[in-house]
Amino acid sequence: MILRDPPHHLKLFFIMQGSIVPRVAPLICLVTAIALAVVLVDRFVQPLPHISLAATGVFGIALSLFLGFRNNAAYERWWEARKLWGGLVADMRSLGRESDLFLTDDILRRQFLRCAVLFTHLHRFALRGPDDHKALDQWAGEDPELVSLATPCAALNAANGILCDAAKAGTIDGFGRKALSERLASISLAQAGCERIRVTPLPFVYSLLVLRTSWLYCLAVPFALIESTGILAPVFAAVIAYVFFGLAAVTEELEHPFADRAHGLPLAAMTRTIEIALAERIGAPVPEPLKPQNGILV
Amino acid sequence: MILRDPPHHLKLFFIMQGSIVPRVAPLICLVTAIALAVVLVDRFVQPLPHISLAATGVFGIALSLFLGFRNNAAYERWWEARKLWGGLVADMRSLGRESDLFLTDDILRRQFLRCAVLFTHLHRFALRGPDDHKALDQWAGEDPELVSLATPCAALNAANGILCDAAKAGTIDGFGRKALSERLASISLAQAGCERIRVTPLPFVYSLLVLRTSWLYCLAVPFALIESTGILAPVFAAVIAYVFFGLAAVTEELEHPFADRAHGLPLAAMTRTIEIALAERIGAPVPEPLKPQNGILV
Amino acid sequence: MILRDPPHHLKLFFIMQGSIVPRVAPLICLVTAIALAVVLVDRFVQPLPHISLAATGVFGIALSLFLGFRNNAAYERWWEARKLWGGLVADMRSLGRESDLFLTDDILRRQFLRCAVLFTHLHRFALRGPDDHKALDQWAGEDPELVSLATPCAALNAANGILCDAAKAGTIDGFGRKALSERLASISLAQAGCERIRVTPLPFVYSLLVLRTSWLYCLAVPFALIESTGILAPVFAAVIAYVFFGLAAVTEELEHPFADRAHGLPLAAMTRTIEIALAERIGAPVPEPLKPQNGILV
Amino acid sequence: MILRDPPHHLKLFFIMQGSIVPRVAPLICLVTAIALAVVLVDRFVQPLPHISLAATGVFGIALSLFLGFRNNAAYERWWEARKLWGGLVADMRSLGRESDLFLTDDILRRQFLRCAVLFTHLHRFALRGPDDHKALDQWAGEDPELVSLATPCAALNAANGILCDAAKAGTIDGFGRKALSERLASISLAQAGCERIRVTPLPFVYSLLVLRTSWLYCLAVPFALIESTGILAPVFAAVIAYVFFGLAAVTEELEHPFADRAHGLPLAAMTRTIEIALAERIGAPVPEPLKPQNGILV
Amino acid sequence: MILRDPPHHLKLFFIMQGSIVPRVAPLICLVTAIALAVVLVDRFVQPLPHISLAATGVFGIALSLFLGFRNNAAYERWWEARKLWGGLVADMRSLGRESDLFLTDDILRRQFLRCAVLFTHLHRFALRGPDDHKALDQWAGEDPELVSLATPCAALNAANGILCDAAKAGTIDGFGRKALSERLASISLAQAGCERIRVTPLPFVYSLLVLRTSWLYCLAVPFALIESTGILAPVFAAVIAYVFFGLAAVTEELEHPFADRAHGLPLAAMTRTIEIALAERIGAPVPEPLKPQNGILV
Predict the structure, then answer these.
(1) Could you tell me if the ipTM is greater than 0.90?
(2) C285, C279 in Cβ contact below 8 A?
(3) Of B39, E16, E162, E272, which is most buried with the most CB atoms under 10 A?
């Protein structure tokens, strides 16, 4: 995630970080070239059919509709993903407090919370791909059961198994079992929400509809622009391509909030927040929060 | 559900999978033919009344309004359906964990969880039509009570009956009854939400309003295009028909998220996820997750 | 509620069921007549002031804004009402299961569930007007207390009274009282939500704003159309009237989701679903689900 | 709140109740006078600069954006306020039932419910200003502790104090304390929600932005209308002023849902609904529901 | 937060408080100067290429789309932040009541509630920066454990520790531990929600897209205005700059609801509301609510 102040107006046009210009530059060039060719052919080779700009207006309206819809849907996915992780942070802090209150056996409580931290890492791996196996080893310690955990579900099952052990040993009462299993269920709900966003893209047909309409529009618009903007037509075509392909590219990026891209969510930093919340109770050293590197928080 | 990367721009116009072009091709052809006829009659037979493009603009605005509304409503149905199934996956995983914690009798617990898996299959059958009776037999085993289950409600009732048996036998305490009946109620709520989406289509009047306005627009627009786009009028009419009838077709498809179509939700794959979550506790072999076939996950 | 497939394009213009054409036909005729009169006077009697179509465009934008807003708000009311009834179905099924689990006295449990069914009927009566007193008699049986129930609140109070009786008799424990009173509270919340929608219309001022602006637009637009569409002006005026008055009429219908109209919610069918869910536990014969009659489910 | 049927089309233009015309009439007159002056000066004194209507179009779009946003935000505040009160009605009914079930001491239960009714009145006073001190006296009776209650928080604290007394006296068990304190917390949440809406207006800057842009638009548009609508320019300017200032006025009214205006929520009637729900349990006569007076429910 | 009535129409153009004019004045001047230069060069030096206003219309539509989206997203962040604090107020009042009911030890209860007040201050510091260390000292008293609290999480952990102490001492039962830990978890969720809004800005790419498109539009529009508005072109350009840069500036301000700006949320006043709710139970003097100073509530 990019963390920087909005640029001053002077620097505005030269910022590349977080910009979608590099990604859509080839398309902008292509559209500009087509518009330039249309203008040149029309002036020097042979008059081409001029069309009224109003006739392309209906495309503009339809394209706004499609892009506006996709942009809203993609942003809502991104923001819902952030909310789910924010809820996970709160759940983990509450899990720590509730384990203090309800799980009186110190050893079991530490193991229980280590499962929770391992869950967070494994959940992150499941969303973004494994990136930090050292963290797993560090939190699993030498407990063979914890070392063997490979999926977030397995980590929650292990945590639940510790509750069963405590119940058998009589070190947790009914209220504690109810409270902690409700908390695990809440964590499980956030986990399933994140999985839902990861495995369910926006319906594929919208990509087709938006990209095809954008292309048809960009191919038609030079024939309208030669009439109304004259020699500036290629400039206008370039700006139109920037606006529409740019928004399409932004949308595609936000659609995948867990991807490891510039606008992806800072999963590692949020995992660290959870580690900080639980480290002391586990008896581990409290790590430092992650800082943005060059304005990027991962 | 279609799972594939957005196409490269070269292939963009040739992709048929997930495209709505095949479905609306006849309409596009018809509109193009009408526009062509209008142009030819106007040029070679007898001048037709030309109308200003601005006069058709009000249709365009109204149509954007109708289509934008329907598209949003249909997508929200689709996404809500996905959320309900995502919640069901989380509920089932929590049901497994809570049955470990609260239902101490091993035999009853396995039977209880088999009811839950059977519910998932029967729920899917109720939404999409029965497609896999072998799965039912496999999970019901030889228990006559489970074999006779025919509706998702019956499966939940059977699960509840097992809790009653456990309560009578004293192998579940008050906390357990409370926790597990809350979980069943949560599952029941997701079930009723899915049924709601399946049996309540978008109000029929919108279909009429959108289709009639689209047709009136497509019939009027050629008379405006002969003025402003000349010989290109049929091309423009074709694109307009593609955009508006295409979006209407997309909308109709997403309106029915449980239908067995290209953009339907992958109910079978999500059922499999639930089977994987519960299989081990039941003592059954853990099945493999479903993979997309030719980019389609069912 | 209308349950039928979207029409084939041929039949599209001749469907009357669910169409708002009959309701707005007089308005369409009136607007068409005015436009015709304007054209005729302008051509044969005396030239009228022509106005530019762009000048009416600002009305079009404002009207889209108002109609779009009202349409969204009305549809959301309709869909929220459906969600509340869907939640009620889930609550009633869970109530049945929880009464199995927590209310061990058979006689009290049956009476409790009969109160629940009576509540559903009385709730429906309160929303749509009483229509089926036989159902009340059938479910109340000969119990004088149940026969005298007249409001949905009274039915819930009676159900609660049965829980008090059971508590005094010691046949329900604390967990049961907590679980069942939570369920009654959830039902009560759905009830209050439905009442809210029924007694709180959309703010009256929007009706005025939309209808007045629509009329002003329809009166102004012929003066613009004589310029840009010539002799086709009455046709265009008719379509504009259809689109705007039609959407206003749709909105007004969806604004009242409990009314007994073509697009009203199928309250009787949903009540029947609840009867089916609880009949067996009460010891009554399980009724058949309601089927649509001529494509209408009431 | 205005409760009346939408007007027949004949009466439509003469309804003043609930109309915003009286409030914006001075503005409409002013704008019309300016437009008339522009037309007269342009025709008879000295030609003024004519501007193209398209140039004012960008204002129209921006204004739609601002007004559409503010209107949605204001309506959502109004509807959320109504939802919070609807939830309060449900909570109060459930509070009555749960006190039957969990609070076995008759005297304490009555006092508890009188606190609840007093809370409702005091909550209404806090939102709309005190209007009916007789009601307070009636429900407080001669209990000095209840008579002295002056804020909604104090009433809820008193209700909670009664639960503490019952707990000390042993006439309420743990389940009852949990259930009733959860209910009080739910009431407290609705209370805080209403307070939030009352003390937090829409950001002030939007008022400025909307009003300034509306004025600039209304001052610019006559220079465009003299070209495109000729002598009808003042009529058009009047309608534009009606549409934009009218919507701004509607928005401002709905922004304050608790104000004692035509479109304010019927707080007194909803308070009465709560009194009806609890009166019998308290042993007081059940009052009649409030009826609309001249189509207005307060 | 600005609390003042909407201005009368006369004063409307002279209000600076809460206006974004001062912030965007340089941009407006710059755009006006460019437009003036374009007009002067075109008239007196050398004709510049004139472009049709319709060609800039597509920018206008795209810009409305971007600005509308960003404005909605920023307002929703602002309003969600307000909801979270409103929920916090309700949670704190309920925490006070529940501690009365469930935490019978007077000394522990007071210390517990002092932790809650300290949490509120520390939470505010974490969002807006520390501004009032005297308040911390006042509520921490001379208790060394409370004096050392430095983060909101630490304050909640301390509150939880008091519950653990009470549990060991046997002065809180299972219901109390369940109720109060649920309340702490609810507070923790509100805290995490506020943190989420503070640390996650709107995706950076939208700022770039909006600002770049605004600039391109403002640079292109003078070439269109010289045709359609003549000598008034600089005035129109100024208004367009006001509308678009103004909305962008509003958006940026609302995007940061916890910042100490004119439209920031009144965190100090809401903290005071919580102090008022809990002071009496702690045995501290009840402070006065904060009043707006010059129409600003901080």
Answers:
(1) yes
(2) yes
(3) E162
